[in-house]
Write a structure and sequence with these properties.
The complex is a heterodimer of chains A (about 80) and B (about 325). Chain A is mainly β and about 80 residues long. Chain A has a domain at about 50-85. Chain A has no helices and 5 strands. In chain A, the strands form 2 sheets. A two-stranded antiparallel sheet of chain A has the order 2-3. In chain A, a hairpin with a 4-residue loop joins strand 2 (about 35) and strand 3. In chain A, about 10% of the residues are buried. Chain B is an alpha+beta fold and about 325 residues long. Chain B folds into 2 domains: about 25-160, no CATH class; about 215-319, no CATH class. Chain B is about 40% helix and about 10% strand. Chain B has helices spanning about 1-20, 40-45, 55-65, 75-90, 105-115, 125-140, 145-155, 165-170, 175-180, 210-220, 235-245, 250-260, 270-280, and strands at about 185-190, 190-195, 200-205, 280-295, 295-310. In chain B, strand 4 and strand 5 form a beta hairpin. Chain B is globular. Classes of the chains: A mainly beta (about 80), B alpha+beta (about 325).
Chain lengths: ~80, ~325
């Protein structure tokens, strides 16, 4: 609550979560890399990804925001890609 | 085709039977009470503190809820009412409101319908006193006059959805079928005598425990019955069309009062328990190379998939 009726008016994008339904979000984060002559090298082959879900009642991070979910995931990409 | 119509008719008949066979909770429409002439009078009429000595737990819980300060809000409501007046009412060519002195009960009803339904028992002077009090509070806060700001804030917070708003004024929804709430009665789940001097009777309100009761204020969408329809909360509309229609069966009371264990402290995103009840979130993460195209080649990336499932009885957030 707090955004005003606008998002529920059918005129603006409605981004709320419907009940009893799965909503999927997909995020893609490139690993930092540099290109050599033949090979692309990862500058870092580990990523620590922090997934946070904020409830932002008035649409801004103004002190009223509340965290609903937080999880950290470590992922890595140890293999190099080599063109053949 | 004929068959379908027949089923429809018999269902309707069942509803009618149920309604007229319900408890005789209310009575004939009582004479309208004398209009309250000041905020103080209106607050006294709906004072919840008299219920505290016997219903201590309910009072304590209610006191922590937004219902106990429904004009002040978090405190975002009072300032938003002022915005609605300055950026709405005063700019609308046909509202009849050019200055604060033109404000009437009717002009505030587009908010008070739900934030302070008992305002319809007050004079236009009370509507203007409310607006003046909010402006005074904003000014005092801005100028750092804390004592005055606190005093005025308390006055704004005394305007609320108290015990008798729910247990009397709003308690009976179908007044032709179930009767009008009587001025000497508290409405709950049982009939009998009630220990309070001012309200010596108690009676059943057939729908107090049903979602429709909360729906009176928690919104279906635009308030079309008003000359200038406002829209604020729409949780009840969402509940009916997105939750019940898809097989959801809990009532508002079941989740907000019972399963939460919060009773009359009806809460949402500001409460840890409610936050835990709100969502299931699953995160999957993996890494992959992606053959994008010739020019950019192969991109190494992390892919994070998040699955969100809303376990409540309506969309979140509300409007």
């Amino acid at each position: 609550m707090g955004r005003g009726p606008y998002e529920k008016s059918g005129l603006l994008a409605e981004t709320s979560l419907p009940p009893m339904k799965h909503v999927h979000e997909r995020f893609e984060i490139p690993y930092p890399f540099k290109d050599g002559k033949k090979q692309r090298e990862l500058i870092n082959d580990e990523l620590v990804v922090s997934v946070k879900l904020w409830y932002v009642p008035f649409g801004e991070f103004d002190g009223y925001e509340v965290i609903f979910f937080e999880e950290e995931k470590k992922i890595d990409l140890k293999t190099e890609w080599i063109w053949r | 085709m004929k068959k379908v119509v027949k089923i429809g008719v018999s269902l309707f008949a069942m509803t009618a039977l149920w309604a007229s066979g319900a408890y005789c909770a209310g009575g004939p429409e009582p004479a309208a009470p004398a209009k309250a002439k000041t905020i103080k009078e209106l607050v006294a009429r709906y004072d919840s503190s008299r219920c505290m000595e016997c219903h201590e737990e309910a009072h304590e819980q209610w006191d922590n809820s937004l219902h106990s300060h429904s004009i002040l809000g978090t405190p975002r409501t009072a300032p938003t009412i002022i915005t609605a007046i300055d950026k709405g009412l005063k700019l609308f060519p046909y509202s009849g409101v050019k200055e604060d002195k033109d404000i009437t009960v009717e002009s505030l009803m587009f908010c008070a319908k739900c934030h302070l339904p008992q305002l319809d028992e007050a004079t236009d002077d009370v509507a203007r006193e409310i607006v003046a009090t909010i402006r005074g509070w904003q000014k005092a806060s801005k100028e750092g006059n804390e004592d005055l700001a606190d005093e005025l804030e308390e006055k704004i917070a005394s305007l609320n959805i108290g015990c008798m708003v729910c247990h009397n004024k709003m308690a009976i929804i179908h007044k032709w079928a179930d009767g009008y709430a009587q001025p000497d009665t508290v409405y709950g789940s049982q009939d009998g005598d009630h220990d309070d001097e001012k309200f010596p009777k108690m009676a059943k309100a057939p729908a107090l425990g049903e979602s429709i009761f909360c729906g009176q204020c928690h919104g279906l969408g635009p308030n079309f019955e008003l000359d200038e329809p406002s829209q604020c909360a729409t949780a009840y509309g969402s509940y009916l069309y997105a939750y019940v229609a898809h097989g959801g069966s809990d009532s508002c009371q079941e989740c907000h009062m019972h399963k939460s264990g919060l009773g009359h402290d009806m809460q949402a995103y500001n409460d840890e328990t409610m936050i835990k009840m709100a969502l299931d979130v699953k995160v999957e993460a993996r890494s992959l190379f992606w053959r994008k195209n010739k020019e950019e080649g192969v991109i190494p990336k992390g892919i994070i998939k998040v699955d969100l499932y809303n376990k409540t009885g309506h969309v979140i957030p509300d409007g």
